[in-house]
Design brief:
The complex is a heterotetramer of chains A (750), B (512), C (544) and D (107). Chain A has 32 helices and 2 strands. In chain A, strands 1-2 form a two-stranded antiparallel sheet. In chain A, strand 1 and strand 2 form a beta hairpin. In chain B, strands 1-2 form a two-stranded antiparallel ribbon. In chain B, helix 6 runs antiparallel to helix 7 and helix 8 packs antiparallel against helix 10. Chain B is globular, with a radius of gyration of 23 Å. Chain B starts with 6 loop residues before the first helix and ends in a 10-residue tail after the last helix. About 1% of the residues of chain B have low confidence. Chain C is mainly alpha-helical and 544 residues long. In chain C, 68% of the residues lie in helices and 6% in strands. In chain C, the strands form 2 sheets. In chain C, strands 1-2 form a two-stranded antiparallel sheet. Chain C has a two-stranded antiparallel ribbon with strand order 3-4. In chain C, strand 3 and strand 4 form a beta hairpin. Chain C is globular. In chain C, 67% of the residues are buried. The C terminus of chain C is likely disordered. The chains are: A mainly alpha (750), B mainly alpha (512), C mainly alpha (544), D mainly alpha (107). Chains in contact: A-B, A-C, A-D, B-C, B-D.
């Protein structure tokens, strides 16, 4: 077993250890054992940093990959398939190692931060336990080498997010939110599961590499449509987890959870897992599937941005910006800007975590005041928070010199290139939405900064009963904060902010503040070659299938590749760009066009961002236009945005009410129809009954019941024959004999 | 009009009579016992005394010895073919003697006799005479003999039914039984006369030969004859539509007699029916209807299906346990007929086995009913509430017997049903529908049988008399023994089955 | 060894019969000891079991030995049927992969059942006698390899169950009991006819006699061509299959025949619900696997998708009905219906993944549902009500209970890391891999969501949020300043007491362990299942 | 008188008469309310059988018929005895021999 693998196993299990210790013994430990959580995560981070060093810095190989697996379920010699084993395994490649250190780092910081933020909560220890199980499952997603394993950890992060969202379970709203989150994710998971099943049913394996190899070898027996379906279904998993439209509704509500949780799970890591997963299965996505993904991403980015501009709750604004940014990433994958969107994933993780922790600091300082309308003027009280928060905001808005700028522009450039390659038209909608959302992002972030940090404090403006209510809602949680003045938070909450803010500056990723492609990241994360071929008619499925997929260890290595002798101009061109050879011309073209569109993207987006910030200033800083008046002027639009496009209401009315209604109907059906085809009949029988009604109460239902009914009625009739008068008996005797006689007589005579 | 026989002929007649008597010892012995009982009753003018019961019991036990002796004898006919001795007859001899003994035991347990009856002696004598009659029914091979034995049984049955002279129901039952019985046996004997007219024979074997030869061209009369004869037999086995007497009689008669009738005289009817059906009706040749005006198998099918359905269905409505059991016994007649319809050795074996199981279980059930009636003074379902607690042993026993009546394993009743249905299915799928009806009706039967445990265990008594009703040690032992046997034979039934197979061979006919 | 494990409880029952009914504690202890001994034996059998031997059909030499294990085969009844020939019934028991898992499950569940019967005060003697009788019958069903023996055990189960529900049950117990009894009997009487028919159609290759041996019946070459259920009699074979299937489906219970289950569960006392859901329901599907399918493989082929459709209906219909329930126990009952649907679906796939999944689901459902019913019983003991809306916010006051409930609930909704997930996953994998049931599988996946829906909803309504007005308990502030709750007329420990923990913790552990590493159970299954799939025919193989 | 004259009447005369008797008997049994009259009807039925037996035994030869009829007569007598005993008892208890009134047990 490779030493890195052993190390990664240790990293994987450490958080689980912390969970086990804390869930059982936290009440027996000093400080409810928070130091255990922090310490363990610190260790995990150091170890993963070592892995990062080994993989990225030492190896410095785009195709770096070590894998290991073991047999988990052995189904023996299955008829028609042969020996069948379901394996579990670990794979470490560049992206995995990067994500590994990212997740452990943020998780560590959040642990640290929580020691301050959650101090005094009555379930303090359990909180760290939950963080532990979450980190464990998240690392599992990153490390696992097959679809089955990733599905397992997928569900597990779902669980931990369920537990953490509902951490203040005394609040009905929290309980609702956690249920909503879990169910929405389940809906996505169904799709993901079906996608997995489609692939498994063809190859009888869950392992990525084997699936890719089989696909490349053209072993996929079903139609190409099934393959597209598989892609889209798998993507549904991402839709659920990464809160893409139409399953985005759970994420804003998830802000009911403690703020560190929002930072860790619902901004930085878990929600990004969807993107990570799509990246993992990128090579099986057919162009059609990619188009769907691109449009979903673009639409989500836009919709979320429009909602974010009108929200009052500081965390909700951030939540919707998260949705929007995830939209960017998905869009990036859809348009084939693979490395760019993964890049954005990482950068976003850091600055969004920073933003959330910052907002957490603010909320903490404001005694759980979350409404930006009652904030303001905090920059003086909380300088550290102010600086870091602003820095992260700039990164989110995507101003030059920030990490966000690099990644976002790479995505947008890819979008433009994609539109060109796909032949314009409707496809230009995608970059357009992208840029427009960029402007909106800049706008609402500017608004937030201003409302929170500038101007005068508006705490006193808050209606009292509202305050009271808000106070209650937290139950015992904030009892130990007596109301004294706002002040900067302690070091253990400040340090994470600083670290994360530092990580959202450009030089961490790329020497060139304007081009992320020059950075180590995008060099280490090249776009993998597809194994499903392009949609071009002249380049059919089979043809693409036999082409070599460079870092797919598969039987097709040996296949001689006509395209590979440098005869393919596209290939040559793209290789000139220092990328590896793309077997699929479409991919190559997109990447090529993306590079071409790089500077266009920079210009447009910079303009957009400045425009956005400018607008924000016009509205809030200089007060040239009164936001309230504007809101009134475009009231329908305002309401539409403020009410989040009414998605919740729509779902409530259709799916939730619908299924509850169906449930009620079916259960009525069950008791009244299936159970008693004859409960009605039983009442009839009761009329016949001569005994105390307990008799026919027992008349059984369903089929038996029907018999019982006929039986009883016939019985009721027949017993009348027994008149008790002997003469009647005799008469009947004679009649019977006579009847028989006539019967047989007729049979003989005729 | 006819000339006297010559001396030589008389000599030979006397010789054959002498020979015949050797085959007739059990019957003679029982007749002696019968008179002995009368005499003892006359000398000891006391109320129901234990002495008579014991004498009867020991007497009947003694008869078993003589019956056992007869196994050594070659199966043959005697008294000029009027009377046969074969395994089949032996089976029923045991059967009837044992049921007679059980009837005595049950009677001893019944307190009602103390209240109702002045002298018990002739009662036992009548039981014995009924045993004799039934034995003769099982062994007779001549229309005349059949008629005589049947009437002997019937008359004793009438008297026994009405034995509680002060009791309205008892007497009413007797009257109904009498009238119904008289009419149907009258019709039967008219049928006999027609049969005699057709074949000029009264011996069943000869009749069979005669019919096989010349039955076809007289089919119309033969049809009427068969119908009338079936009437008589049907009345004896209490099968629908000749069952009307049964419920009233079973309800009105003294419970021991009810048990006795529902088991023994029904069995006697079956013995008769089987012998007549197998021997006198030639079924070796292809289609019965082509020979004898009427298709006996179809006729029996109708009887059996009607009995199974009617008995079980109407039983659902009974609230008097004795009456409920009466209807159930009608239903069981239907199941028994199924085995007859198969009309082969297997079928006979199944029927005999079923009779054995029914014998055991039904007596058990009635025994418990009597014990309960002794304590509660009632046979109504409602008065059974909560008996499971107050009379645990009785409750358990009754439950086991009822389960066996339903035909659930591991009880002997289940094996009985199993045998019957196996016999049907062994014929392939032709009789499957009969088996189906049998199955369905037995599901229905579960319902009303279970009403009794339901009342005993699942319900609380209305008047809260939590006092345990002690039945005494002897009844407990008897119940436990019967219960144990019911289950034992349900698990290890080889002996019973082999016995019934051994007994399923009749004289003068080879069943395949 | 097997005989011992089968008849231990009934021996205990006989001992109890001798104990005076006043000695309640002795009676309980005797039964407990018997159950524990059973468990020990089960473990021993498990230890000595050789997973390589397939079972299902006879071994290479035509005798069950070398295929089945722990075989005990003694002639039981040898009759000579007049005019037909010998009737041989054997006391013939043995286990293969399919039955041994069920044996272990039965031992486990009946032991836990005894523990949870501890509080029962009414007619303890009778109760435990019936309980032990039931335990023997269940165990017997799973090891019987002779159809007659199987049928006897099968029917013997009914009566004790009838009384256990009818005497110790809830207010509406009479109805539930008689309903259960009639329903099941209705199913099994037809089995009787089929059994006889099979007997006439099958001969033992070794002796040449007709036989009740299921092992012989599982080999098609042992059938007499023109017999009533022989290969030529296609129609009757179909009829027999359907009739048998209905008989078993009633026990499962499958959709139109399920209505006895909610009533039975709601009325039955907790331990009986545990037994009922934990073991009895498995008998239905076990019967299908052991008898229905291998005896009529071609009919199974024809009917696979029908079974699949019924499975899907069970899954979704059960989930919806559960969603609508107010009574917690009824909800769990419907969830059983839904979960047994997965078993049906997996079986209908007819390939190894599906069938292994189905078997494993049977085992897991046994443990998980036992856990659910025990937990329901716990709260019912305290609050004397099961109405979901009579609770709320319990998690704050009964943390241990709430924690266990959460584990059980999530196990039931198939959370990875808990055993239920693996079986459901395998079921879907199988059902989807088989062309016949692919689309059915796609529909049934909805069950995952609705399963989560009703479980989470009930969890929220009972344990999260605040105490509801009109709840079954009061919130009082104890002298230590903390809030406590007080149930009316409940003086026991508020949170779980030692007995309840000893019942629940083992189940939780099993659920988690088998969820992480399923091979201890799966390893025993695979050989038999692969064999079964072969027996079930080439048609499936071609579809893979 | 002379047997030869009798024999000129064919068997069908006898059968007809017996059939008539049977019919009468059945009619009586079905219609009469008085238990005793019903019994007389039964006697008629039995005697119809008697006539049959005698006639057949005459025309088929052999004595079985004659024997049979003798026994039937005896049986009939015995039956009558028992019947009367029971009916008297009934009259004691019900103060009537009307069978249609004697129906305490039914259904």
């Amino acid at each position: 077993m490779h030493s890195l693998i052993q190390l990664s196993i240790v990293i994987l299990l450490l958080p689980l250890l912390s969970f086990v210790i804390l869930i059982f013994f936290n009440r027996r430990l000093p400080r409810r054992g928070d130091f255990i959580g922090v310490g363990i995560l610190g260790t995990a981070f150091v170890l993963s940093l070592y892995i990062f060093w080994q993989v990225i810095v030492q190896a410095y190989d785009p195709a770096f990959r070590v894998a290991w697996d073991f047999t988990w379920i052995d189904l023996g010699n299955v008829p028609g398939v042969g020996p069948l084993k379901i394996k579990m395994g670990i794979v470490i490649d560049n992206i995995a190692s990067i994500m590994l250190s990212m997740v452990t780092l943020i998780s560590f910081l959040v642990h640290l931060y929580s020691t301050g933020y959650m101090a005094g909560d009555k379930n303090y220890g359990r909180f760290f336990a939950y963080l532990g199980i979450f980190t464990f499952s998240m690392l599992g997603i990153i490390l696992s080498d097959n679809l089955f394993a990733i599905y397992i950890f997928w569900e597990l992060v779902g669980l931990s997010s369920y537990l953490l969202i509902g951490f203040f379970f005394e609040k009905e709203s929290a309980a609702d939110a956690q249920k909503k989150a879990f169910l929405a994710n389940r809906v996505g998971d169904i799709g993901m599961w079906l996608g997995i099943l489609i692939l498994y049913s063809q190859f009888h394996t869950f392992n990525y590499q084997e699936i890719y190899a089989n696909l490349a070898a053209g072993k996929f027996a079903l139609s190409n449509g099934w393959l597209t379906a598989a892609g889209i279904l798998l993507f549904m998993g991402c839709v659920g987890k990464s809160a893409q439209f139409p399953l985005h509704v759970w994420l804003p509500d998830a802000m009911e959870g403690p703020t560190p949780v929002s930072a860790l799970i619902h901004a930085a890591t878990m929600v990004a897992a969807g993107v990570y997963f799509v990246a993992r299965i990128f090579v099986v996505l057919t162009p059609d599937a990619l188009h769907v993904i691109a449009f979903v991403g673009a639409f989500t980015a836009f919709m979320a941005a429009t909602i974010a501009i009108t929200q009052h709750d500081i965390k909700r604004v951030l939540a919707y910006s998260t949705v929007s940014q995830l939209g960017y990433m998905v869009l990036g994958l859809g348009v084939g800007a693979y490395s760019a969107s993964l890049f954005h994933l990482v950068t976003h993780a850091f600055f969004k975590a920073c933003l959330f922790l910052g907002s957490g600091a603010i909320i903490h300082a404001m005694h759980h005041e979350q409404d930006m309308r009652w904030m303001g003027g905090l920059r003086k009280q909380m300088p550290w928070t102010f600086v870091t928060f602003t820095l992260a905001t700039l990164a989110l808005a995507g101003l030059p010199l920030t990490s966000g700028f690099l990644s976002k522009d790479a995505i947008l450039a890819g979008a433009i290139g994609f539109a060109e390659v796909e032949g314009g038209g409707i496809y230009y909608l995608i970059p357009f939405l992208g840029f427009f959302s960029a402007m909106l992002t800049a706008f609402y972030m500017g608004r937030q900064i201003w409302l929170v940090f500038f101007g005068e404090s508006r705490t006193h403006l808050k209606p009292v009963d509202d305050q009271h209510h808000d106070h209650n809602a937290h139950g015992s949680h904030d009892d130990d904060h007596s109301h004294h003045g706002v002040h900067e938070v302690a070091w253990n909450m400040r340090a994470p902010l600083v670290i994360l803010a530092t990580l959202s500056v450009f030089f961490v990723y790329s020497p060139d503040p304007l081009d992320g492609a020059k950075g180590w990241f995008m060099k280490m994360i090249p776009t993998p070659a597809t194994v499903v071929g392009s949609s071009n008619p002249q380049q059919g499925f089979v043809h693409a299938a036999v082409m070599q997929a460079p870092h797919v260890e598969s039987a097709t290595h040996t296949v001689p590749d006509p395209q590979h002798e440098g005869t393919n101009p596209v290939a040559q061109h793209s290789s000139a760009h220092g990328d590896h050879v793309y077997s699929d011309p479409r991919q190559a073209a997109i990447v090529h066009a993306g590079h071409g569109a790089h500077y266009t993207a920079i210009y447009i987006s910079s303009v957009m961002v400045i425009l956005g910030i400018g607008l924000a200033c016009i509205f809030y800083v200089f007060g040239v236009i009164d936001p309230a008046k504007t809101a009134l002027a475009i009231r329908p639009l305002y309401l539409f945005s403020f009410n989040k496009w009414y998605w919740d209401e729509i779902y409530q009315a259709t799916f939730i009410r619908g299924s509850v209604l169906i449930a009620k109907m079916l259960s009525w059906f069950d008791t009244h129809v299936v159970d008693g085809i004859v409960n009605g009949v039983a009442t009839l029988v009761r009329k016949f009954a001569f005994l105390n009604n307990s008799f026919d109460k027992h008349v059984v239902d369903g089929l038996v019941n029907f018999t019982a009914f006929t039986v009883n009625t016939t019985g009721a009739v027949l017993r009348k024959l027994q008149t008790g008068k002997v003469q009647t008996y005799i008469v009947m005797l004679i009649l019977v004999v006579f009847g028989y006689f006539v019967f047989y007589f007729s049979r003989i005579v005729y | 009009m006819f000339e006297l026989p010559s001396g030589a002929e008389i000599q030979s007649i006397i010789a054959s009579l002498k020979a015949s008597v050797g085959f007739f010892i059990p019957e003679i012995y029982l007749s002696v016992l019968f008179m002995l009982l009368i005499v003892i009753d006359l000398v000891t003018k006391s109320k129901k005394n234990i002495l008579l019961s014991l004498i009867t019991l020991s007497g009947l036990t003694g008869s078993l010895f003589f019956i056992y002796q007869q196994h050594s004898l070659q199966s043959s006919e005697f008294f000029f073919g009027m009377y046969v001795l074969d395994e089949f007859a032996l089976f029923f001899k045991y059967f009837f003697v044992l049921s007679g003994m059980l009837a005595v035991v049950v009677t001893m347990a019944d307190d009602q006799f103390d209240r109702e009856v002045k002298s018990i002696g002739e009662y036992y004598a009548l039981i014995v005479s009924m045993v004799i009659g039934m034995i003769m029914m099982a062994s007779s091979q001549d229309l005349l003999m059949i008629f005589l034995s049947m009437e002997l049984v019937s008359f004793t049955a009438y008297i026994l039914t009405g034995y509680f002279k002060k009791n309205q129901r008892s007497s009413e039952a007797a009257l109904k039984y009498l009238i119904y019985g008289a009419v149907s046996s009258g019709l039967m004997v008219y049928g006999f006369s027609l049969l005699y007219g057709l074949t000029a024979q009264t011996n069943l074997i000869k009749i069979g030969i005669e019919l096989a030869a010349t039955g076809a061209d007289k089919s119309l009369v033969m049809m009427l004859a068969s119908l009338l004869i079936i009437t008589g037999f049907g009345y004896k086995i209490g099968a629908v539509p000749f069952h009307f007497w049964a419920p009233d009689v079973y309800e009105g008669a003294p419970t021991p007699i009810t048990a006795y009738l529902s088991v023994a005289s029904k069995a006697a009817g079956f013995a008769l029916l089987m012998r007549f059906f197998y021997v006198a009706i030639p079924h070796s040749t292809a289609t019965l209807s082509s020979i004898v005006g009427i298709d006996w198998v179809t006729l029996l099918m109708i009887l059996s299906v009607a009995s199974m359905i009617y008995g079980n269905v109407v039983a659902l409505w009974q609230k008097n346990v004795k009456r409920l059991l009466a209807y159930s016994s009608i239903a069981h007649a239907g199941y028994l007929l199924l085995g007859l319809i198969v009309m082969g050795k297997f079928g006979t074996q199944a029927t005999l086995f079923y009779l054995l199981s029914y014998f055991l279980v039904n007596f058990g059930a009635f025994y418990v009913v009597i014990l309960i009636a002794n304590k509660t003074g009632s046979e109504n379902l409602d008065d059974y509430k909560g008996l499971g607690k107050t009379m645990p042993v009785a409750g358990a026993a009754l439950t086991v017997f009822l389960v066996s009546l339903v035909g659930l394993p591991p009880t002997v009743g289940f094996i009985g049903k199993l045998m019957i249905f196996s016999a049907l299915l062994a014929k392939g799928s032709v009789y499957l529908w009969l088996a189906f009806i049998g199955i369905m009706t037995s599901v229905i039967s579960l319902y009303y049988y279970m009403l009794i445990p339901l009342n005993m265990y699942l319900r609380e008594p209305q008047q809260a008399t939590g006092k345990a009703m002690n039945t005494g040690i002897v009844p407990k032992v008897i119940m436990s023994v019967l219960m144990a046997l019911t289950i034992y034979f349900g698990l290890f039934f080889t002996s019973l089955s082999d016995f019934s197979k051994y007994s399923s061979s009749l004289f003068g006919i080879v069943l395949q | 060894m097997l005989s011992l494990i089968v008849f231990l409880p009934i021996i205990a029952g006989l001992i109890i019969l001798a104990v005076p009914s006043s000695q309640k504690q002795i009676i309980r202890i005797v039964s407990l000891l018997a159950a524990l001994a059973q468990g020990v034996l089960a473990v021993l059998i498990w230890k000595d079991y050789n997973p390589a031997l397939p079972g299902i059909t006879a071994g290479p030499n035509g005798s069950p030995l070398g295929s089945f294990q722990f075989v005990e085969r003694v002639p039981w009844i040898n009759l000579d049927l007049a005019g037909f020939g010998p009737l041989n019934i054997e006391y013939f028991i043995g286990v293969d992969g399919i039955s041994i898992t069920m044996v272990i499950l039965t031992a486990l569940v009946s032991a836990i059942g005894v523990l949870s019967s501890w509080p029962i005060q009414k007619q303890v003697k009778g109760y435990f006698i019936l309980y032990n009788l039931l335990a023997t019958a269940m165990m017997g069903c799973f090891v019987a390899l002779d159809f007659f023996l199987f049928y006897v055990f099968w029917e013997v189960m009914l009566l004790p169950m009838y009384f256990l529900i009818g005497i110790w049950g809830g207010p509406n117990r009479e109805y539930a009991a008689i309903k259960f009894f009639l329903y099941t009997l209705f199913g099994s009487v037809f089995m009787l006819l089929v059994m006889i028919g099979l007997y006439f159609s099958v001969t033992d290759p070794v002796t040449g006699n007709h036989t009740f041996s299921l092992v012989a019946m599982a080999t098609q070459s042992n059938y007499i061509k023109d017999a009533i259920l022989g290969p030529d009699n296609v129609v009757w074979r179909y009829v027999a299959f359907i009739v048998l299937f209905i008989g078993f489906a009633i026990k499962v219970p499958m959709f139109p025949f399920h209505t006895w289950l909610p009533d039975a569960h709601v009325e039955a006392p907790t331990p009986i619900s545990v037994i009922l859901a934990g073991v009895l329901l498995k008998l239905g599907t076990y019967g299908m696997i052991r008898i229905n399918f291998p005896l009529f493989p071609e009919v199974f082929q024809a009917g696979m998708y029908v079974i699949g459709i019924f499975g899907a209906i069970n899954i979704i219909y059960g989930a919806f009905c559960a969603l609508a329930q107010q009574d917690l126990k009824k909800m769990v009952a419907y969830s059983s219906i839904s979960h047994m649907g997965y078993v049906l679906l997996g079986l209908s796939a007819g390939n190894s993944e599906g069938m292994v999944g189905a078997l494993y689901q049977m085992f897991n459902h046994g443990t998980i549902t036992a856990m659910l019913f025990l937990l329901v019983g716990v709260i019912y003991d305290r609050a004397h009500t099961r109405q979901i809306d009579k609770f709320g916010g319990l998690a704050s006051y009964m943390p241990v209970y709430a924690g266990l409930v959460t584990v059980a609930w999530f196990a039931s909704l198939g959370l990875p890391g808990l055993s239920g997930f693996i079986s459901e996953a395998l079921v879907f994998v199988g059902a989807f891999s088989s062309v016949t049931t692919r689309y059915i599988a796609m529909v049934s996946v909805l069950g995952i969501v609705f399963g989560a829906a009703y479980l989470l909803w009930s969890l929220q309504r009972m344990f999260l949020g605040q105490r509801k007005p009109g709840a079954a308990y009061d919130v009082v502030t104890g002298d230590d300043g903390h809030e406590h709750i007080h149930f009316h007329d409940w003086n026991g420990k508020l949170d779980l007491d030692a007995r309840e923990l000893t019942m629940l913790v083992p189940l939780v552990i099993i659920t988690i362990v088998l969820g992480i590493y399923p091979m201890p159970i799966l390893g025993m299954l695979t050989a038999s299942i692969n064999k079964l799939v072969e027996v079930l025919s080439p048609v499936v193989l071609s579809q893979l | 008188m002379d047997i030869q004259q009798l024999t000129t009447i064919g068997i069908y005369h006898y059968l007809t008469i017996s059939a008539l008797l049977l019919g009468l008997g059945i009619f009586a049994v079905m219609t009469r309310r008085n238990a005793i009259v019903i019994l007389m009807g039964v006697e008629l039925i039995l005697n119809a059988a008697n006539i049959n037996f005698l006639a057949f035994s005459k025309y088929n030869g052999g004595m079985e018929g004659v024997m049979f009829s003798l026994f039937i007569i005896v049986i009939a007598a015995a039956e009558a005895a028992i019947a009367l005993a029971i009916i008297i008892n009934i009259y004691k208890l019900f103060k009537s021999v009307d069978v249609s009134r004697i129906d305490t047990m039914k259904e």
